[in-house]
Amino acid sequence: MSLATPAGSPAVDPAELVKDPYTVYARLREQGPVHAVTGTDGLPAWLITRYEDVRHALADPRLSLDKRNAAPGGYRGMALPPALDANLLNMDPPDHTRIRRLVSRAFGPHQVTRLHEPIRRTADRLLDAMAPHGRADLISAYAAPLPITVICDLLGVQEEARGDFRSWTEALVSPDPEHPERAGDAVRGLLGFFARLIADKRARPADDLMSALVDLRDEEDRLSEDELTSLAFLLLIAGYENTVHLIGNATLALLERPDQLAAVRADPGLLDNAVEELARFDGPAPLAIRRFATEDVPVGGVTVPAGSTVLLSLAAAHRDPRRFTDPDTLDVTRDVTGHLALGHGIHYCLGAPLARAETRIALSALLERFPDLAMAVEPSELARRPSMRSRGLLALPVRY
Q1: What is the pTM of this model?
Q2: Any idea what the Cα angle at residue 234 is, between residues 228 and 239, rounded to 5°?
């Protein structure tokens, strides 16, 4: 994404937004609340940067998630078949309301509490495997396999299929520009996989979410076949990518700030609030899911024309000093009520309780197991995923 500010400042190098989004967004936020931008697809969009405007926009019904509301010749996005595209990230009410209501029970506090012990067992098993080596890449050894195991357990995916599951997911969420064909291979692989999984759950239902969703489809006819497949796809992608990045970013933030790490170690009761603050401070999604204006929408003194693509900068909003005091400082005791890392309004993250639980348990188990956990490289040596929409580490070498 290149940026053109109202003051006519030079376009921002996309590499800057990957390396240091907070400095770039701070500059834009202070220059103005809304900016004309050009996306990576070369098409125009509007970027909103200030907390109050972003929060309001997240819940504004005039800003649609349905791609059919994009202007002709406008936003195209990733080309997915209907069986993967008919998901909550592309829907408005009433379809969004219907599907969300059907699956929300699976992610309520009581249901997620039942998963705490299995999540902790998975975390301990992964740490057991790491322990003898004295150093590891925390992403590949811990932050990535933990959520993929949790989501596969939830969906009822068999152990032998999980390697393919993870590689397909990686190919979609972090496409390799030198091998664009891999994303297409991943789409075909996931389509075939979900077709087999759904057929298996129809023939041999079990006590898992996928079986429950198949039952909703077949017995009550409340999901179309495409909606069923797309929902499973969304649960996989959202339940995996964001949690990997949140665990990795959170661990790095604590290791770089010994005072905050010491505070959490001294009082484990701080962990719940720490997870919220860590999500604000360096969350996995610098931008919310794109919206499309269904009519002319005034924002911060600027009129966003109907049909426009609208980008909401969570990264800018979370560092807005109008909302958070000293926002560039990590403070695990901060009252972080109102952060937007998990959304706001009717599109608030369905899996928020699960993401919180996974991150808290992951950090708790890690810090308990390795009291001398430390970085194994200089922070300047770390590389992040080359994405402006997803903020995560390629690797996090640690020693213990």
Answers
A1: 0.91
A2: 130
